[in-house]
Specification:
By secondary structure, the protein is of the alpha/beta class. Helices cover 31% and strands 28% of the residues. The N terminus is likely disordered.
Length: 317
Amino acid sequence: MRLIDKLPMVHPPEDRYTLIPASKGFKPFLLGGRTKQVFPFAVDNLFYRGIAFNKKYKPIVKPFEKVYPEETSIDVVLEDLKEEIENIKESLEIPLNKFKFGTYIPTRYGFLKIYSLAKNVSKAELIRTIELYIEEDINENFPGKEVVYAYDFLKTEKDEPYRVLITIVESEIIQKLETWAENIGIRLDIISYEPICLINLGLLKGLPIPFTILYTDVNKILVLAYQKDRILYEEFSYVFSPDKMAEDVLNLIIWDIRNYIVLNDLSNIYLAGVVTEYEHLMEYFLEKLPIFGIVSIDVFPERYSLLYTLGERLLNV
């Protein structure tokens, strides 16, 4: 599987923040890597989860997760995760500072887009145009908020326009994560963005472009379409339970998702995430939506698929 130049990564705006790791030099495990053990984790307003493993995918820390009965502030979730990691630390034979740590920003805190720009302009004019477009997107999507942004040029053919991938994330959530990491004595080597991790999952599993992934988590359904010249994504809120399913509510969400798929003419749709761990939930989605296949990571429970993808990146930081 060839991953080196297929991952649509952008350079960080500052050395401290690797919003999306650069693709240069990235190698999958079979081609070798420098890092021996990684510790990707995720936090959201209804859960946290994490896992630590080595380059042979052997867990050093078994997959762990806490799901809250209702929406909780990120500050509370981070405090609980801090306590969890402090407890894990006591039983580890390897010091925490020997791990590469990484996380991703939940979708609602950021923005992702591809710009297509003509090549018959000067470099200075091109950069000014990109900065102007980014400023417009910040004003439209993040009024009154401080943000961190990054952009990079995706690979194109000689006769094609430039394709520029831009990512914008609220500064506050990054600052909270950095402060949290500092308080437990670790450094975050990667801070990514949830839709980027989902794109990487599709590329890692060799999905043909264009593809659409319907990713399910305990508190959301994220529909993301990755195409050559655009990225579309939409988040639908829904709390999943393996024991009971609010079918009437889920039917309404499925209706909205189907309309989104039809409206945007999406195809090659794959199902991923937590619902694929439960046969009755998976069958429900396969019955209700035009799903082409399942994306499975095999090595860990499916709800850890984005952390597995992030771990692949960390192995080669």
